Amino acid sequence: MIKAILVFNNHGKPRLSKFYQYFNEDMQQQIIKETFQLVSKRDDNVCNFLEGGSLIGGSDYKLIYRHYATLYFVFCVDSSESELGILDLIQVFVETLDKCFENVCELDLIFHVDKVHYILNELVMGGMVLETNMSEILTRIEEQNKLEKLEVSFLLSAVFDTSLGELNSG
Amino acid sequence: MALRKVKGNLERMFDKNLTDLVRGIRNNKDNETKFIAQCIEEIKLELRQENISVKANAVAKLTYLQMMGYDVSWACFNVIEVMSSTKFTYKRIGYLAASQTFHPDTEVLMLTTNMVRKDLNSQSQYEAGLALSGLSCFISPDLARDLANDIMTLLSSTRPYLRKKAVLMMYKVFLRFPEALRPAFPRLKEKLEDPDSGVQSAAVNVVCELARKNPKNYLSLAPVFFKLMTTSTNNWMLIKIIKLFGALTPLEPRLGKKLIEPLTNLIHSTSAMSLLYECINTVIAVLISISSGMPNHSTSIQLCVQKLRILIEDSDQNLKYLGLLAMSKILKTHPKSVQSHKDLILQCLDDKDESIRLRALDLLYGMVSKKNLMEIVKKLMIHMDKAEGTSYRDELLSKIIEICSQNNYQHITNFEWYVSVLVELTRMEGTKHGPLVANQLLDVAIRVAAIRAFVVAQMALLLDNSHFITGFSQRASMCEVLFAAAWICGEFSEFLTDPKATLEALLRARVSTLPGHIQAVYVQNIMKLYGRILTSSGSDASMDEDMVAKAAVEEVSEMVAARLPSFVESSELEVQERASCALQLVKFVQKQLTKGQAAGLGAEIVSLFDGELNPVAPKAQKKVQVPEGLDLDEWINEPPPSESSDSEPEVQRPSLFATGNAENAYVESYQSSKPAELTQEEVQRNREARQQEQACNPNYLKGGGKLESKSGMFDVAEVPVAQLDLPVALKIPGLASSDHYLQKQKQTSSKKKVSTKKKKKSKKHKESSDEEELAAPLHVVNTDVGEMPEGATLSDGMDDDNNDLNDPHRALDVNLDEPLRAEETLPVRSHREAVKFEVTGEKKAKKKSSKKEEKVKKSKKQPIMMDLLQNGEHTNAPTEEPSNDFWLDHAEYEAMPDTSQSKLQVEENEKPKKKSSSKTKEKSKEKKKKKEKKVINEDSLVSSLAVEAPTFVPDLKQTMSNKDKNVLIVS
To answer: Rounded mean pLDDT of chain B?
Structure first.
């Protein structure tokens, strides 16, 4: 099981936090902080596994992370997950983001955290890996975006209609 | 004009959207909280509007604020409103907010049941998918119960996307509503063979999670998984399956045997490191579970170790880390194979990556031998000097002690070396392992009788230079070593070369800064040393004549009497009490000395501390039998009307005897009892009161009175006085250096006998240790477990009740092979579904009733099966023949001509196993047609079940052979 997925930047600012186990907001912030402290002091050329922090999990849990430019992607998982598998999953996640945002950078995550969540929801569900095939993930995301677009255009036209209607009557 | 109006409408709709919020926060870095507070006010206004799009916008912003650590649970009702929107866009926003902010205890969840149900049954697969994703984050027990049936329905959706999500969702349902597991399990099992690989993978994932906690219930699925493992090419799924097998093999050695070959093939063939690593892990688990009796056993282990070596040698730090991790698993059972890679592991100790060093440290445990222990410890000590973080240094310290003390100091040949290592460890700054070092010193001193002289000499030096240890406040825990030092010096005072100097060290004024329990030990051991000096001053008879000796004794007494009051004034109760007693005793001796009646007093005092202290087994206290007729809960006296302050010390005392970590217990008890500083008068008053109380207390030894009466018989003139030969006190450089022993070891390996200067410290040892050869241990270790109360024996694991009562998996530990009972159904609410459900329910009931008779017949089958699983052998009785050929090797299968019949019997009892039986070749080809086949199988199954048992074996055989034909035709 994946217990939490955290994305934060080099200064520890959270860019995405997904907890698959309930923690209140204060605790969530503390976990992010602690995780950042654990991860940020490590060089880039050391291994990507870290025995879990004290706040989340315990001995059975590991932090598996990757560092991309300004962002850390951290997965907190228990022993039922394969370490290398999760590393691959992070790669899939980031590559998917890259495809969806076209050359993803931190700003994309800052301004579209909701979209990042939607993408993540296609990879992981309730702490379990849902899909790892990138083309499948991308199709699902695109289809849902299409649905949304359809609604927005419908909505806009509705707004126009009502406005026009008001205009005509007034 | 028209355009402006449209624009106005739009703007009202998106007053400030998420992007504006984020931008605003970024532009207001200086007064972020103020800005956000303002935003929250706006959001509250927006939430009050009727327009759903405004609300959705507000909720989206709240979701962002939640990530920043703001509690937004006040808006949960609005979140539900947005979730219930008919627009996918808003629904999505609502579900996202819900999945981020709701949790199983959120109260408004009960309002969502029908809405979520509607979404689950939505025509759009994305709406249903949305509901599933969201629900997986906040499902509560109530929701799980009410929606279980709807999710079950989705398991057979035509869309793989939904099936996949529903399968994963079932796991969450099981956790919150364990009663669902049994009725839902058959359906879940079907999903293991779903035509869509994503669904398959999800099902594997769920079963793995379930089986991880209760593996024995899922053994019957092994054949299905085995088939998947040998046919699938999906690495993700393979990893999960292989991990699952790792959990199953300890329960079923025969499964392990079957696994070795395909796993070995995978190890050879796969290019994916993750898969390779998991295969190795599972092979290790298999090899651990099959302790012996495998012919190619060693080749497998060799293969694993070789592959792991490649991983460790890889430049990728991740592989290195995992390689070491897996090595440590092999180490437990096959230490020899790991030991051959010692060079590599020692190399990893120098790695720049702390995680890797820590893993390598774990392995060291198995790397040490008598020969290399000193070298390895030396290396660790160097690391410890270099280490920056205290946590890593602490880890090193505890590892050094762990590898040295393992198996009752099995690898230590020279205890002088070990003691000097421990003494060197006391110089480590800021470690938390002071008590550990102290314990080791005590343990070695007690267990290794021959080393005592050396330990005592070293400890005397430590006491003399205690400021080195207590000098820095950050070394707080290292002062525990003084506890050990004081005790060792006092207890084995006969080995002290200069008791007076040590006594002085104990009496030094600085001592009063130490923690209370250490001071208490100081006082106690001051008296031991005092008694020792009195007796060693000469024979009782000559005391009076020898004025020099008498003067020396008087001097010592004066010193003790002068310094003890500083202990009496201690704020620690225990110290105070002991010091008062000690002071009175010394004053009394002084009086007798002046009267000239002190002869034999020394022996009297020594006899106070008579008797050898032996190690006590850790569980001894627990094992003390309660004598017959003793009721521990009964009041001994009438219960006091109320707790008076006088009883306080009595109340605290029990913690001294608290079970568990004795060390901690008494440290705590001292720390928790810090009475206010008392004035001399109060001390006096308290003391009188206490003495009064002690006089009435039958548990107190009234030593003073006894001594007084006896002492009258002695004449002070007869007190013996001997020449005190006090050499110059050793200085701190005299502390033994562990390096010296390492060098010595190296030298002795070339030359047998070497004499070094430094060894003059203990003459006794010089002779013995020189003669001894390296290979033979210098000292005999008392390896007893320790004393136990009479009649009690050691038992292992008696206190192992670590099971977490809150673990939801406890409730999921149910037998899944047992047929369903009538009442075991998923609860249904809506009318329409109830009809649907009844159909399935009937079906189940029908199956069940027909199975019932059979179950009576075969009620023995299950236990027999288990028996077989445990023994791995087959009984001869034909009806009790082993159930299914999956467990058998091919050869075994051939050798058993009669199995077919009984095999069939069980096969229909255990559906999952049936599927794997001997059709491995044809199975992967036609997935669509397999469904048909399954239907046929089930029909034949049901019909055969109706037949009476005696005749049904041949019948069944026929149906089965028909079935086989079907299969052949199908394929």
So the answer is: 72
B794 pLDDT tier (thresholds 50, 70, 90): low
Name the 3-class secondary structure at B288: helix
Task: Specify the residue for token string 């796991």.
Answer: B171
Nearest chain A Cα to B86, which residue?
A151
**Contact: B355, A155; criterion CB under 8 Å:** no
Best residue in A84, A89, A142, A156 for a mutation probing chain B (most B CBs within 10 Å) = A84
Angle at A135 between CA A133 and CA A136, to 5 degrees: 65
On whether the CB atoms of residues B527 and B605 are closer than 8 A, the answer is yes
DSSP code per residue over B190-247: HHTT-SSHHHHHHHHHHHHHHHHHSGGGGGGGHHHHHHHHHH---HHHHHHHHHHHHH
- Return the half-sphere exposure (C-beta side, CA atoms, 13 A cut-off) of residue B957: 11
Question: Residues B486, B463: contact at Cβ < 8 Å?
Answer: yes
Q: What is the pLDDT of residues B45-95, one digit of tens each?
A: 889 888 888 899 999 999 999 998 999 989 989 999 999 998 899 999 999
Other C-beta atoms within 10 Å of B890: how many? 8
DSSP B616: B
Q: Does the pTM of the predicted model rise above 0.95?
A: no
Grouping H, G, I as helix, E, B as strand and the rest as coil, residue B775 is coil
Cα four-point dihedral sign B698, B700, B704, B710: positive
Q: How far apart are CA B407 and CA B416, in angstroms?
A: 18
| Closest listed residue to residue A132, CA positions, set B204, B127, B270, B126 | B204
Q: Which amino acid is at B465?
A: N
Q: Is B87 in contact with A151 (Cβ distance < 8 A)?
A: yes
By CB atoms closer than 10 A (0-12, 13-18, 19+), residue B896 is middle
Instruction: Please report residues of A whose CB lies closer than 8 A to that of B96.
Output: 114, 117-118
Q: Are B568 and B583 in contact (CB under 8 A)?
A: yes
> Cα(first)–Cα(last) distance of chain B, in Å?
74
Note whether A160 contacts B64, CB cutoff 8 Å.
no
Q: Which of A46, A85, A113 sits opposite B352 (nearest CB)?
A: A46
Most A CBs within 10 A among B7, B9, B67, hence the mutation to make, goes to B67
User: Looking at the complex, does the CB of residue A152 fall below 8 Å from at least one CB of chain B?
Assistant: yes
Supply the pLDDT for residue B718: 46
Nearest chain B Cα distance for residue A72, angstroms:
16
The residue type at B707: L
Region of B746 on the Ramachandran plot (φ > 0 left; ψ -120 to 50 alpha; else beta): alpha
Stretch A80-102: mean pLDDT, rounded? 92
Distance from CA of A26 to the nearest CA of B (A): 6
Closest approach of B735 to chain A, Cα-based (Å): 38
Quote the ipTM score: 0.93
User: In whole angstroms, what is the distance from residue B97 CA to residue B94 CA?
Assistant: 5
Model pLDDT for residues B856-908, shown as the tens digit of each residue: 444 444 443 343 334 433 334 344 344 455 655 544 444 444 434 444 344 44
Q: A121 with B33: CB under 8 angstroms?
A: no
Tell me the three state secondary structure of residue B756: coil
Given a contact cutoff of 8 angstroms between Cβ atoms, the answer to whether B119 and B91 are in contact is yes
- Helix B703-711 vs helix B601-608: crossing angle, to nearest 10: 160
Distance (Å) of CA B515 to CA A120, B110, B332, B706, B752:
55, 56, 41, 33, 47
- With a pLDDT cut of 90, the percent of chain B lying above it is 13
Q: What pLDDT, in 10s, does the model give residues B234-266? A: 888 899 999 889 888 888 878 888 888 888 888
Cα–Cα distances in angstroms (integers) from residue A30 to residues A14, A24, A77, B476, in the given order: 11, 10, 18, 29
Total Cβ atoms within 10 A of residue B555: 12
Burial of B655 (0-12, 13-18, 19+ CB in 10 A): middle
